[in-house]
Amino acid sequence: MASITQNQGTAPHLLSSIGNNISVTESTSQTLQVSKSRDVTATFNYFKEAADGSPPAPNIANQPTSYVREYLHRQKVVHDIRGTEEQYTLDSTGFQIYKHESAEKDFVDDEQIKRVYYPETEELLKKAQSSTGASKVLIFDHTIRRQESDPRNKPAAPAQPVDSNAPVTLRGPVRSVHIDQSYQAGFDRVGYHLPDEAETLLKGRVQIINVWRPIKTILRDPLAVISANTVEEDDLVPIKLIYPNRVGETFSVRPEKEGRTDGGHRWNYLFKQAPNEVTLIKCFDSKTDGRARRVPHSSFIDQEFEDEAPRESIEVRALVFHPDDTNGEQQSEDEYCHLQPMLNESRR
Fold first, then answer.
1. Are 91 and 292 in contact (CB under 8 A)?
2. For a Cys staple, 157 with which of 115, 149, 169, 219, CB 3.0–4.6 Å?
3. Which residue from 305, 332, 322 is spatially nearest to 90, judged by alpha carbons?
């Protein structure tokens, strides 16, 4: 933040030429506060089709080599949204910045995280979703990302979610464009985690929201998200995720089609994101009435900060239920019917 004191002889054009993406506010003392956003250009790894047109091979939980793929590399402008955070909401763009101070600071003890941080996060999600009546939250796992050599680390694990029954481990940033759940996987999560309640819960709105928090202020490997309304359905590629006891599914993401006149995928991040600045990432929404249903995301390399300390962050994944939100279109009958065999099997 820079300060410019406006004297009577200061020409207006000198103020306007300071730079693009600058917000200027004038105080009663004629001191102008100038805040410049920091947009950057970065390379993102998008899904690459197989030469023979075959479907993508599945990912295997806890088998890191199964995640190794060829990608299409695309350079994109990443927009720094600092100062305009209120323009981005879960229902309009699929993500939201939420200010929240946590009592947990170190995130080194899993049991303490579950005892202290989980209840905090549940309340955070209810407050953030108060306008649509979120009344039930179920956290089903969390991931901590730190440098592999950090002495606080547990044994290395793949850079993708493992099943909730597996031990929570620490992993590095994910540098491919993805969504943690496909639409079908979103429905299946309800039946898997809450088989006795699923049929009732699915009559109302269901979301899966990731709560992503820096443990220390982020410079290296920041998180970027694509505005959901700039991602077309044809951009999404379902990829099976094989667990020991079930089959899940994620989305990889194709680059936008050539010829789009609307600018294509709009990438966003928050420069120097601090521990009290939480990113809410919508991975699934059962509503199909125009509200954002999913948001692709990825870490990216900012060349200016590659020599900084490695990123430390925690990501909590949660099912969020809105039993009273019955407005708008809900999931399709086909999707709901697909869930029934899982419900029946889980009750045997």
1. yes
2. 169
3. 322
Angle of helix 183-193 versus helix 333-346 axis, rounded to 10: 30
Q: What is the pTM for the complete model shown?
A: 0.82
> How does pLDDT run across 97-130, given as a tens digit for each residue?
999 999 999 999 999 999 999 999 999 999 998 7
Contacts of residue 150, defined as CB under 8 A and 6 or more positions apart, other chains included, come to 170, 310
Residue 320, Cβ neighbours under 10 Å: how many?
26
Q: What is the pLDDT of residues 156-191, one digit of tens each?
A: 333 344 343 433 344 788 999 999 999 999 999 999
Taking CA atoms, 269 is separated from 20, 187, 227, in Å, by: 17, 29, 10
Q: Residue 215 has which token pair?
A: 């443990």
What single letter denotes the amino acid at residue 80?
D
CA–CA distance, 152 with 312 (Å, rounded to integer)? 12
Helix (H) or strand (E) holding 333: helix 333-346
CA 199 remoteness from chain centre? 27
